[in-house]
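hi support,

uploading two proteins for the ticket. first:
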Amino acid sequence: MADDDRDETYSRFTDAVNMTKSELTRWLETDESRSVGIKAGGEMKTSPGGGESQGHESGRMIVELLGKKKSDLTDADMKQMNRVTGYVHRHLAQKPSQEDVERSRWRYSLMNWGHDPLKK
């Protein structure tokens, strides 16, 4: 990947992921985090048990990415960063019309991907 592309990918990722490494780590340990998302095979999660969702797995990868220096990021890391950015942008566009999103599956799913839509 060209340096300009890497810089753009990094910039878009750091804009999309607004949770710190420690915030995301704490979040991923909650039942709410484990209760949302799609498991391998396309099955929707409706409870904290029953295997890890794709978003929760991605959250663990994001924690690793946030712990790396920009100069240490690999092409595989850049690919994951693009995947995260794409997910966050697509999911933000699907904001539910309900007033209270604080405890919504929509917010919880975004938080698994490192973005808290309520964070200022």
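and the second one:
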Amino acid sequence: MAAWPNLSELLAPPARKTAVGLLGAPLAAGSVTPGACDMAPELLRRTLRRIGRYDVETGRELETAIADRGDVELAGLSIEDATPRIRDAVAASSEAHALTLLIGGNNAVTRPALLGLGGELSEIGLITLDAHFDMRDLDHGPSNGNPVRALLADGLPGANIAQVGLASFANSRTMHEDAITAGNLVITIRDVREHGIAHAMDRALDHVAHCDALVIDCDIDVVDRSQFPAAPGGRPGGMAVHDFFHAVRRLAADPRARVIDLVEWDPPLDSTDLSPLTAARWVAECLAGYEMR
């Protein structure tokens, strides 16, 4: 063991039987703002060695091995063609592991991630940490701006969807009204600031209390742009990064959480190491939450 134990030491071969799997979905096609989200999985893996395993606040050291299942081959594919590949890869990972960490790629990976769990959509819940509703229309096909609307069209009930961190001047009235009409729980970033992230997580989990399995969508643009510059949709006034970490750990601790994704990280937008370190810390928070189960 290294003198300073770090997360990279927990990565294991894909064939190893572990509770947690790591899967890359480097999808950049169909992004509303074109970018290079496909570079994120590789950079995250390289950055894990810079994140330690010891949590000074709890006195616990992370020890759960992570089977690295590699990246889904998506080069040159449209969202339509990429969707079944991601769905099948998530299905295989979910069968092998209690928790799958899915690294996008843009937010279009969230829909196949949820569909990959299989079973009845009425039994699956979706909690998003996102500045946006992701409710753009479907007239021109799927994009990273409409995975929630697409899932509603697939038959996922709004009663199974909780959206946390929604930002002003980043959404439309129609999206907001459609989300409410569908039955989605809507928690704005102002709600988070005024009542605290713990209260927001209580409300989100209460909303999906009837669901047997959960998918957690972490769109990194929920974080304030100053604390994660490499998110194309990030804006000033977003979620404080310590609140984001709290939310991720809390949600990962729920035994129903089967898939947690991290999406919309566009590495070239940040010339510093702030964004990669934040993304790699996300892995630590997911593991810390899992080990609380």
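thanks. also noticed: The CA atoms of residues 110 and 147 lie 7 Å apart.
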